[in-house]
């Protein structure tokens, strides 16, 4: 407890002293969310990173998020508390494999989820996040064939809602594919009034029984504004921290994960590599820093900038 107070105070002091900003994703641990300047979903964080006047961005999230912030801010320092904070989607889509995949579909436009490396973004026509993916797909003429990568669950969901037949890369999120449908059905039987709220990275069977599907911030908005009192929340458990404080009188039940999952609820082990201590140390020592080679950054910024301007 004392260490938490110490780190939090020091982080706030150093942020001011260094004209730095601390951006945190909703999947970060509670104490990091509490000390951050801004907490958001992938799209909101990319927007904040694009707009900030700070000299240093401390990104409490995973590598591809900090890398996107660096691409948008080549002249600022972007720090990531733990450089090993990866993502199963980004790490499962390697440039050489993706180039070969793309070559099989020469007439297709490439839409990629923001959960990719700079190299994959540089090979993309469009970039999207879970909150604007449907809008991005609908903005592309219907007769234009599309490759969607790397999340096959989000891709299948988008195919279903838009009626398209996009070719999907075979990737998935280890957190959102870990929900147990059987346990979820049991939970619904015990809480028949509960609304199921799911992130579109979840598997089709979970999405099929969901009452609402949306990005982290869209799920938060639904839960806050819905007249229902009980919600089963199928996404990373970190989203419950602020929500529980904001929706007094409502019950939020984390969707259960399969037996072999490391946590009874669903936590992203990559996101949780960042700790309050690591946030403090990286801000104090201004390392580890994320770097993106200039030519690569110039190519990767095109679809990111287009997304930020048009959605
Ligand atoms: P959003 O923040 O867009 O909801 O994405 C969730 C996610 O898995 C981030 O890695
Ligand atoms: Fe990647 Fe899934 Fe973790 Fe998000 S929750 S960072 S998509 S592994």
From TrEMBL:
One of its GO terms (cellular component) is cytosol. Iminosuccinate binds at residues 25, 42, 113-115, 130, 199-201, 216. One of its GO terms (biological process) is 'de novo' NAD+ biosynthetic process from L-aspartate. It catalyses: iminosuccinate + dihydroxyacetone phosphate = quinolinate + phosphate + 2 H2O + H(+). Pfam families: NadA. GO terms for molecular function: 4 iron, 4 sulfur cluster binding; metal ion binding; quinolinate synthetase A activity. It is an enzyme of class 2 (transferase). [4Fe-4S] cluster binds at residues 87, 173, 268. Binds 1 [4Fe-4S] cluster per subunit. Its cofactor is [4Fe-4S] cluster. Its EC number is 2.5.1.72. InterPro entries: NadA, NadA_sf, Quinolinate_synth_type2. Pathway: Cofactor biosynthesis; NAD(+) biosynthesis; quinolinate from iminoaspartate: step 1/1. Keywords: 4Fe-4S, Cytoplasm, Iron, Iron-sulfur, Metal-binding, Pyridine nucleotide biosynthesis, Transferase. It is found in: Cytoplasm. Belongs to the quinolinate synthase family. Type 2 subfamily. Catalyzes the condensation of iminoaspartate with dihydroxyacetone phosphate to form quinolinate. This is Quinolinate synthase. It comes from Mangrovimonas yunxiaonensis.
């Amino acid at each position: 407890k004392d260490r938490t107070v110490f780190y939090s105070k020091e982080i706030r002091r150093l942020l001011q002293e260094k004209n730095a900003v601390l951006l945190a994703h909703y999947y970060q641990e509670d104490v990091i969310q509490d000390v951050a300047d801004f907490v958001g979903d992938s799209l909101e964080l990319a927007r904040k990173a694009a707009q900030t006047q700070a000299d240093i961005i401390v990104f409490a999230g995973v590598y591809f998020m900090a890398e996107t912030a660096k691409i948008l801010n080549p002249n600022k320092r972007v720090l990531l508390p733990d450089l090993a904070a990866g993502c199963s989607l980004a790490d499962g889509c390697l440039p050489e494999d993706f180039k070969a995949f793309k070559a099989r579909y020469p007439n297709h436009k490439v839409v990629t989820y923001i959960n990719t490396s700079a190299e994959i973004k540089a090979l993309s026509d469009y970039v999207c996040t879970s909150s604007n993916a449907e809008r991005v797909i609908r903005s592309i003429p219907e007769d234009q064939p599309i490759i969607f990568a790397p999340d096959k669950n989000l891709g299948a969901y988008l195919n279903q809602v838009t009626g398209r037949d996009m070719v999907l890369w075979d990737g998935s999120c280890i957190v959102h594919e870990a929900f147990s449908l059987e346990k979820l059905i049991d939970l619904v039987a015990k809480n028949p009034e509960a609304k199921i709220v799911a992130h579109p990275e979840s598997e089709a069977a979970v999405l099929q029984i969901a009452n609402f599907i949306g990005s982290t911030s869209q799920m938060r908005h639904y839960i806050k504004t819905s007249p229902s009192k009980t919600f089963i929340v199928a996404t990373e458990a970190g989203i419950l921290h602020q929500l529980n404080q904001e929706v007094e009188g409502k019950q939020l039940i984390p969707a259960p994960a399969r037996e072999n999952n490391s946590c009874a609820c669903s936590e992203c082990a990559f996101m949780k590599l960042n700790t309050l201590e690591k946030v403090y140390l990286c801000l104090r020592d201004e390392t580890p820093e994320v770097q993106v080679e200039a030519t690569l950054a110039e190519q990767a910024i095109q679809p990111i900038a287009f997304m930020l301007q048009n959605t």
